[in-house]
Amino acid sequence: MHTESYSRTRVMNFRALFLWIFAMMPLLANAAAPQVRTQGPGFYRMMLGDFEITALLDGTHPFPIDKVMIDVSKEEIERDLSRDGLKAPVQGSINAFLINTGPKLILIDTGAGTLYGDCCGHLLANLHAAGYQPEQVDEVYLTHLHKDHVGGIFLDGKMAFPNAVLRVSEADADYWLTPANKKSAPEFLSTFFDSAIASVAPYIKAERFKTFSKNQQLTPGITSMATPGHTPGHTSYLIESQSNALLVWGDIIHVAPIQLQNPKASVEYDNNPPSAQRFRRKLLGLAAQKHYIVGAAHIAFPGLGRIRRNKHTYDWIPVNYEGDPGK
Ligand SMILES: [Zn+2]
Ligand SMILES: [Zn+2]
């Protein structure tokens, strides 16, 4: 009797063990799942009063901070990066911003297209993923004519936005579209002139290239703001709807962890570092004081956030994530 009960218990234990293994099999199988290692489509949406804003990611690329930053010591670079858990080279985002004002669809900056290689040139795919077609874009405004902002306007030698008018500041067009200026520019910028000329060519040919002078209202709710220094005609854009404001500031900041601590820190791409520093301080102060949302070309995607002023430094406060805005 005792033996029989013992062996029955043993059989039941085996059965329980078998059932447990069977139940655990899906979990064991999950543990061996291959890693995916990709992100979702690179767009982020928010409302700004009546305007819909879509941040679009063109890609990220390894930014050799320790080599390209000037007016800041190697020790400061290392200290500021490590405080944020980073070290050079840091992946830098290339962001663009699509503004649907209602009557018009406006794209500010266009990413690098094919000019930066495989890392980038994903803007059109992300535009599609965000629910828009390139044919719907009415106007493209560029902050400046560097490769990572202008490269996406053309595709296989044609206009990537076939119905758009391209708007660029007079000062940047005069500088980058004049090949003779190559002579006085640093050697590493030489190909930037060629790229700018090739990128805008289809728009000039189609008579869809229109420059603007300083500080103009380009469409109701969007005003250009001359912020020279990074390039001679570098332009920021103030977007306003229903007393909400977004400042799309282009390349005012390249590396937030360093330049928010020390706005004097510049990059060797800055055409006029003292002017770049002056406008960096001006726009940081303005954004903090007015509590603007900032749209930044090179702060981690989506590059939308606010600036908080400390005594001598600034903090970046990313916008709070919202699902399906305005619904
Ligand atoms: Zn630039
Ligand atoms: Zn840039």
Task: Explain this structure.
- The chain is α+β, with helices and mostly antiparallel strands and 327 residues long.
- It has 2 domains: 1-34; 43-318, Ribonuclease Z/Hydroxyacylglutathione hydrolase-like (Metallo-beta-lactamase, Chain A, 4-Layer Sandwich), CATH 3.60.15.10.
- Helix content is 31%, strand content 28%.
- It has 9 helices and 18 strands.
- Strands 1-2-4-5-6-9-10 form a 7-stranded mixed sheet. A 7-stranded mixed sheet has the order 11-12-13-14-16-17-18.
- The radius of gyration is 25 Å and the shape is globular.
- The protein starts with a helix and ends in a 9-residue tail after the last strand.
- The mean pLDDT is 93.
- It binds zinc ion (2 copies).
- Residues 144, 146, 230, 251, 269 line the site of one zinc ion.
Give a concise summary.
This protein has helices at residues 2-31, 65-68, 74-83, 123-129, 147-150, 170-176, 190-205, 256-259, 273-290, and strands spanning 43-48, 51-63, 69-70, 90-100, 105-108, 139-141, 154-155, 158-159, 165-169, 209-212, 217-219, 222-226, 235-241, 244-250, 266-267, 293-296, 304-309, 314-318.
